[in-house]
Design a protein that fits this description.
mainly alpha, three-stranded antiparallel sheet, 6 helices, about 45% helix, 3 strands
């Protein structure tokens, strides 16, 4: 997904009618439909996307060492580095970074493209994320 794709999706949003204008027609998309579109099986758990405290994990130390608050350009840079890397952890880092990039584009659109540390808790166990 490119920045332009995310921008096009956001521009389709009509907050007044709580719909997306797709093909000139208003379309109301409910939470269960978003789950299906994104392939999410939340199991009824609420996802917390607050800023939170910076966790201390090997992934965060590798990719966000001295960063106070991660943002979309940094995540994109780290995506490229992981993609070009040959270390054993680069593939898993790439998967986590892709998820973060989606998070920042979907959940943090009004925050200046920064993402909260609380979101990182969902990236610890990639096996729990599979559909």
């Amino acid at each position: 997904m490119h920045d332009g794709d995310v921008l096009q999706i956001i521009q389709c949003d009509d907050p007044k009618s709580e719909t997306f204008k797709i093909g000139g027609m208003p379309l109301k998309i409910t939470t269960p439909e978003v789950d299906i579109i994104l392939g999410i099986q939340s199991g009824g758990k609420e996802v917390k996307v607050s800023y939170g405290i910076k966790p201390d994990t090997p992934f965060i130390r590798r990719r966000f060492g001295s960063v106070c608050r991660p943002n979309a350009p940094l995540i994109k840079q780290q995506l490229h580095m992981a993609l070009e890397g040959s270390a054993s952890y680069d593939l898993l880092d790439f998967i986590r970074l892709c998820c973060l990039y989606l998070f920042v584009g979907l959940f943090y659109t009004n925050s200046g493209h920064t993402i909260g540390w609380a979101s990182f808790q969902y990236l610890k166990d990639l096996k729990k994320m599979r559909v």
